[in-house]
Prior knowledge:
This protein is of the alpha+beta class. Helices cover 25% and strands 28% of the residues. It is built from 1 helix and 11 strands. The strands form 2 sheets. A 6-stranded antiparallel β-barrel has the order 6-7-8-11-10-9. A 5-stranded antiparallel sheet has the order 1-2-5-4-3, with no helix packed on it. The longest helix is centred in the N-terminal third of the chain and has 52 residues, at 2-53.
Amino acid sequence: QGLGNIVTNLTADQATLSELQAENEALRARNVELEEAEQTAERLQGLLDLRDANNLQSTAARIISGSSDSWTTTVTIDKGTTSGVAPGMPVTSSGGVIGQVIESAATTSTVRLLTDENSSISAMIQSSRAQGMLDGSATGEVTLTLVRTNQQVSVGDTVVTSGLGGVFPKGLAIGQVTSVENNPGSLYLDIVVELFAKAETTEEV
């Protein structure tokens, strides 16, 4: 009888353990879901704050895929002409500008990223207001060009959209200066910029 009781208790304990493990797995999965929802809410709130701070008329979209070839640096978003998205429109995340729409279908659009070698937008140094053009490259390096050597530019300076050209609203965050070189005989500074918004870690725009 004693041995029978022990076997019964062991069987019961094993059943309880299995139930606890199942419950623990369910709770862990739920915790992951809640954490994901919280992070999504924070990102979306950031986009709303951006829109409010800059008085922007905008629409939200999700990035659904990246470049399909090695010659361009683009992403595809899940909004198109039916949502009012059209080629030429600027695209930004809560962290900063990521690019510009170059092609739109009914429900998707292609966005050329700032890192693309064909990308060139008007930008300026926020502190000194030095104007230039932010250019991408085949290597993915982003530079601020056409800034004259007599302008004040320092490592750590913030780069923002200048508003020239009428495409990007003025004052949107772009990135930070990581290096400045004043080469003898050159009319312009060599300025490298690190972007605030990385497309590879961005989900909503």
